[in-house]
Specification:
Keywords: Signal. It comes from Paramormyrops kingsleyae. With about 375 residues, this protein is mainly α. It is about 65% helix and about 5% strand. Strands 1-2 form a two-stranded antiparallel ribbon. Helix 14 packs parallel to helix 17. The radius of gyration is 25 Å and the shape is elongated.
Length: about 375
């Protein structure tokens, strides 16, 4: 009972106090908890050798309860604390190898995956921990691509035994009733999509083919698929880097699909799709393909008619980027007139975003006039 009460108090303290997190890290809490994960895995393996016995089942249940608590303690310890995250990642310099990343946390969680799949509460705790661990931390993201200590990244090996592989499989196989787990899995993938190592693995595993095959509309409803916004958030994260922008347009049919989604002005997903379209327009290698898509250009031009200032700015900024240093483009007279009228109206506004939008429109007009 004392251990349980102490643990709960410690959970609350770590959740609200950065200084408590730092003190705990320096005292070796992260090391102790990760080592405990390994020990729990060994215990669970031993218990699984004697299934069916009441005493063994009781011990297994006790291990699983402790596992959930350890995962929660680690989550609260790592939350927005770079010092603690570094404590969960070790860098070894080996005599015969330049460098190898050994993420103790990733390698402690991976063997526990079969037990996590059998318990919804455990899976939720593990996914929450991994989301916290990988948030704004490149080395943490990369560590989930590896299959074991001292090994090369998984994309160079055929094993496919990394945490990232497991999360990809989980995200694509979950049923709609497991929406909580699906949301957490995609939140984790959105974090990982910002990492170069993870982007390479996502591409080589053809993970985004599931997005292209996604049913946008339910057969009996006009509502989009509930998983659509989750996929779009991953794509948005991917689109913040140049290599990610190129990856998106290399997917056969992705540009047309994104443009089609952006056409629905009353759709709650529209801001996400417009931002993705905006971001891919900033990659020089993508300009010809975006400008060749009449639907994409039409979507961006239509943004200028919006009464929402941020939507206007997204469209104007993307068009400015596409036309900059690129002469092979033609807009209709109606589009020219729209630009001129929008520029005139923006000069009379005094909103915070007005100056950036006006700058975009002025440069667009100048480029088109030349």
């Amino acid at each position: 009972p004392l251990k349980k009460v102490t643990s709960r108090a410690f959970l609350s303290l770590l959740a609200c106090s950065p200084s408590a997190q730092s003190y705990a890290c320096r005292a070796g809490l992260v090391d102790t908890l990760i080592e405990r994960l390994r020990n729990i895995h060994l215990q669970l393996q031993q218990e699984s050798l004697n299934p069916g016995k009441a005493a063994q089942k009781k011990k297994e249940e006790s291990c699983l309860r402790e596992l959930k608590l350890v995962l929660q303690l680690l989550r609260n310890c790592l939350y927005r604390n770079e010092e603690c995250k570094v404590g969960a990642i070790e860098w070894h310099i080996l005599p015969l190898q330049a460098s190898a990343c050994d993420s103790r946390l990733a390698f402690a969680v991976a063997p526990l995956w079969p037990w996590l799949l059998l318990d919804d509460r455990l899976m939720e705790a593990a996914l929450e921990l991994l989301c916290v661990f990988t948030a704004s931390c490149g080395p943490a993201c990369s560590s989930l691509c590896w299959s074991g200590p001292g090994h090369a990244p998984v994309q160079r090996t055929p094993t496919g035994g990394s945490v990232l592989h497991s999360v990809m499989k989980l995200a694509t196989l979950l049923a709609p009733e497991n929406s909580g787990h699906q949301r957490l899995a995609f939140c984790l993938l959105a974090n990982l999509a910002a990492s170069r190592d993870c982007k390479g693995l996502l591409q080589k595993s053809n993970f985004f083919q599931h997005f292209l095959a996604l049913s946008l509309l339910k057969p009996s409803s006009k509502a989009p698929s509930p998983a659509l916004s989750l996929w779009l958030k991953v794509l948005l994260s991917l689109s913040f880097s140049e290599d990610g922008q190129q990856m998106i347009l290399k997917m056969d049919g992705a540009l047309e699909l994104i443009a089609e989604l952006a056409l629905h002005k009353r759709d709650s997903h529209r801001p996400l799709t417009l931002l993705i379209l905006h971001n891919v327009s900033f990659c020089s290698a993508n300009k010809a393909k975006v400008l060749a898509s009449a639907k994409s250009v039409s979507v961006l031009v239509s943004c200028l008619e919006s009464n929402q200032l941020h939507i206007c700015a997204i469209g104007a900024s993307a068009l400015w980027s596409l036309l900059h240093n690129y002469q092979k483009v033609a807009l209709s007279r109606q589009d020219y007139a729209l630009l001129a009228s929008e520029e005139e109206s923006e000069k009379n506004r005094g909103e915070p975003l007005n100056s950036y939008l006006l700058k975009c429109l002025e440069n667009l007009t100048q480029l088109l006039n030349h």
